[in-house]
Amino acid sequence: MDAKIKDIIVCAAFFLLLFGGLLLCILKPKPAYLDTERRSLLGFPELSADSVLNGRFSAGFESYAADNFPYRDAFRSVKALTAAKAFRQMDNNGIYASDGYLAAMEYPLNESSLDHAADRFRFVYETYLTADNHVYLSVIPDKNCFLAQKSGRLTMDYADFEKQMAQKADFAAYIPISDLLTLDDYYKTDTHWRQENIEDVAKRLLQAMGAGAQKEYERRTLTRDFYGVYYGQAALPVRPDKLSYLTGEDIEGAMAYDWQNGRRIFVYDLDRAAGKDPYEMFLSGPLSLITVHNPDAPKEMRLVMFRDSFGSSIAPLFIGSYSEITLVDIRYIHPNLLEKWIDFKGCDVLFLYSTLVLNHSETLK
Amino acid sequence: MLFSSITFLYYFLPVMAALYWIFPKRMKNAALLLGSLFFYAWGEPKYTLIMIFSIVQGFLFGLLEERYRQTKSGRIFCFLSVCISLFFLIYFKYADFFIQNVNRATGLSIPFLRISLPVGISFYTFQMISYSVDVYRGHKAQKNIVDLAVYITMFPQLVAGPIVRYGDLSAQLAKRTHSAALACDGIRRFVIGLAKKVLLANQFGELCDICLSSKEKSVLLSWLYAVGFTLQIYYDFSGYSDMAIGLGKLFGFRIPENFRYPYCAVSITEFWRRWHISLGSWFRDYVYIPLGGNRAGKKRQLFNITVVWSLTGLWHGASWNFVCWGLFFAALLIAEKMWLLRLLEKSRAIAHLYVLFSVVIGFVLFRAADLKEAARHIGGLFGAGGIPLALPEAVYYLKSYAAVFLLGALGAGPAVSKLLKVSLQKKACRMIIYALEPAVLVALVLIITGYLVDGSFQPFLYFRF
């Protein structure tokens, strides 16, 4: 090839790329919502004399242009693959892939966060609970517990994590469950555990709480592929999950009430299963206060469960043993307000949280 | 507006290039001026007026200097123009530094002005001063204010250099050629610079942020930070210079080189002839030589070096750690002039290690928020405070960034460039390179776009100057 021809080809290719990009940026319709990242895209910034003169418009446009660039997902994948394969970087924005699983590194162990969490639990204990209550604590290890160290990533000492949490919340009887869990019990592309794999966890918790035998369940699987929260964040080509749920007479006969929005809800919300985050099908996602009634369970068996999103999928497996389960998420409701809705008299109280929330407990009110 | 942004790459550059090529020859400078003013106003709408005022005063005083050259009036006009240029720089950049030190020395509580620094003011002020002084020294004054404005505002080098002398550009403002070869050269240079910034400098920047926020202090982490920053600042700044030179070529300008593999130097003297060449030569020609240079005796020369390097440090930032950084290099330069250079000539390997070590220490000092922090970071390199040799986090990030460090080390030397030069001399290799070049450049732009779409805001380090 002649140097002159090469020069012309380089110039043509470069400017075709830039002009093509410009045209796509202007003409290609922009989606309002990004399913992979589970958020709305930034809107066009306010254009006014004031916003131009004080630099708000230009700063806003820069963010808008990057956020709304055409084929965003494809370009993010290019970046993720370049970082992983060309630069051999072990994580991309803290997210890594190993053995077909995606996870976000959780490191280091934040002792002051554990202190804060224990402090908030102790507040609940000292404010509302008496000797009539049986109080329990259990910590759900996140996926990194089974994936990080073997793949050479940074990992916390999970045994020490549980030990510290048990010590800091010593008013509660600690129920260990991490020995029942393996990597297979978690979704490949999401933070959460698989409900169909945690019957043994539910059984141990129920037995420890003296709550009677577990029921038999039927497993159902959604046909739609489940792209978990890490899928969009990682932007790596990974096979999606399938989301399954366990159901039975007790679960189907249970009635749930969402106090936050003042409405009846289903234990399994199949509309949400077809929505942006299918995991929200378990008790309709992030809600501050829910009560689930099972008229067929012993009336004296009542449970108040302080929980995060992991609790949404294990709570249905308790329905058979409790006539009333109240699920409280103190990330969304201040513990000061609980006496308006909850009668704690004589009930079991379970604090069930994942290491992810406990290690970042600033969200707990 | 940053070069490493979607806005610049896919909005501004194609439109600017199209307008430039559409405008007739006699109006190309006007097109460039309008585009450059828009470029500057995009990030600094209010401060554009200050830059315009600076250009107008420089233009008017330039004409007066030429008319009254070789007279006292000519000298006064030059002095006034330089003072006006310096006034803006000192006011915006050093006012609060001055107030802070007066408060410390006197116990007063004079309130800070809290003025934001206009982007690029250090660069275009020095260019304006260079024009004023060069006209006084005999260059022809620019009669066309548009051409002078293009020289000052030209967007490729406006916000982070190189500091281009008026003499280097004056002929090109009046007449310059455009060709596919020059444009291709420019595109190649621009894309390589963009890759240096986005694919390397930004990664090192992320690593440095991780090291700073880590609670697991260790000697290894300190070295990861120090070497990481040394590579970040090189790829950030040389990448920007590459982009400026590349963009200049797209519009027909040949801008002088600003970096020549500085990490290959075997003395600090040589290092500063390879690093930010335009700044070093500016201080040499407009401060060091007018002070007497090395022609007024040894003592005076050492004084001149100390003054120049104090000012060089201060130019980089309004803080004592920058002054100390400048003085650190002044001390090394003086030592080399007096005896160290003769010693370094005995072993090239040791000399190279000495340069790299000094530069790493210097950049740790440069990056710190203050002298206390600098002392802490430098101490960490040697285990001060009893910190351990290595902890899990440092080992993890060493593994994670190993390839980036290797690429960074390789790219900081001339090996790749030499290999390409040798290959181009062989017909078969040349054909392959010609065939691959368009694809490689397009692929690089696409990968860089991926990083820009995914990444968060990462300004050029030299933007704060």
Give an overview of the whole structure.
Chain A has helices at 3-27, 49-53, 56-67, 72-86, 111-128, 144-147, 158-168, 199-208, 229-234, 249-253, 270-273, 309-314, 355-358, and strands spanning 33-34, 39-40, 95-98, 101-104, 134-140, 173-174, 218-226, 241-247, 255-258, 263-265, 289-293, 302-307, 324-328, 348-354. With 365 residues, chain A is an alpha/beta fold. In chain A, the strands form four sheets. An eight-stranded mixed beta sheet of chain A has the order 6-5-14-12-13-11-9-10. In chain A, strands 1-2 form a two-stranded antiparallel ribbon. In chain A, helix 5 packs parallel to helix 7. The longest helix of chain A has 25 residues, at 3-27. Chain A starts with a helix and ends in a 7-residue tail after the last helix. The relative contact order of chain A is 0.13. With 465 residues, chain B is mostly helical. In chain B, helix 1 (6-22) packs antiparallel against helix 2, helix 2 (28-43) crosses helix 6 (145-153) and helix 14 packs antiparallel against helix 15 (348-367). The relative contact order of chain B is 0.10. Classes of the chains: A alpha/beta (365), B mainly alpha (465). Chains A and B meet through helix 1, helix 3 and helix 4 of A and helix 1, helix 9, helix 17, helix 18 and helix 20 of B.
